[in-house]
Here is the input.
Amino acid sequence: MLLAGGEGSRLTVLSEKRAKPAVPFAGKFRIIDFTLSNCVNSGIYTVGVLTQYRPHSLADHIGIGKPWNLDRARGGVRILPPYQERGGQHWYAGTADAIYQNLGFLRDNQADLVVILSGDHIYKMDYAPMIQAHLDRGADLTVAVMPVPLEETHRFGIMVVDGEGRITEFYEKPKERDKGNLASMGIYVFSASALERRLNEEPGVRVDFGRDIIPAMVTGGDRVLSYRFEGYWVDVGTIDSYWATNLELLGSKPGLDLYSHDLPILTRSEERPAVKVGPQGRISNSLVSNGCVVRGTVINSVLSPGVQVSPGAVVQDSVVMNDTWIGPGARLDRVVVDKQVVVGGGVALGTGDPSVPNALHPDKIYAGISVVGKGAILPDGAVIGRNVLIGMDRDESHFPPDRQVGDGQTI
Here is the structure.
């Protein structure tokens, strides 16, 4: 069961009209591709994808599941949006409630084990060893865990385990840092009978697994065990982490190897021509996807399919999504640009003081990275500072007459 209904509000305009798992990543992929690929690479071919917030882009991307070999007569992938029954609730109130409303899907598939996953994390993992450990140890619930820095423990479910790895205490996003640093990855293997029993026993508090169900199981005597994962795993929940995780792929030894035949990441891929590099084109240390035309300079950047870089333009330390056009002489530095954006000639995007946070979203846009929403048109000659947010579908009429957008401003 793949939880993919999250709004991802910390990604601001990138998730304004799409669910967070549908946000493009690493050029040609979507975030959800990593979890879906992990499932089939682990031999799991019956997958329910639970959607809620802005599901259309995600549903279009997954389709009938053919790229992941999930287009099957038995099993396969099924989109599970919230629905309303007579006298029943419709919107998912939380992660556990989402599973509760789809217990019928588990019964219909005669599940004896249920793997519950988040659709918004970047990692490669074979779930089979974790499932086997769950069976061998007779667990009711097994939780994948890994250590995180103490300063980040407030973002995770933190647990205390005994010598055999049994979880004895569980704290959801604790404010104190004295609970340790062993964090839940949001990857659960449940015995189906234990899962259904707990969801039915806790009708008033079955909203979230981390806040409600897991603590109730720990204190209620269920056998709740941990499973340590030592690979690469990132929650790209902020603009800063999204940008940094993309650019990490350009390093000489990235934590995530997209080119290994071991646990390949699969995706729905449009038919596009090969990358074309013009006579003035220069590409250095970058990921450039199919259909791109590079007549300018691309340095240390990630380009999604169909991006066009005009002569004299320079794209540096940036993430640029599908079918964006970058005009002659434009300069992009430390920016994230969504799909189908037009960057006018001579535009300077990402120039100024990185220490000035965005005035409207100081907690979300503060690391010197400017963000441009889908379909925006940046007028010729515009000068746009750091930590700037340009909304979706903005055009010249939304810019000041002098086309100067200072650090930390929002259009």
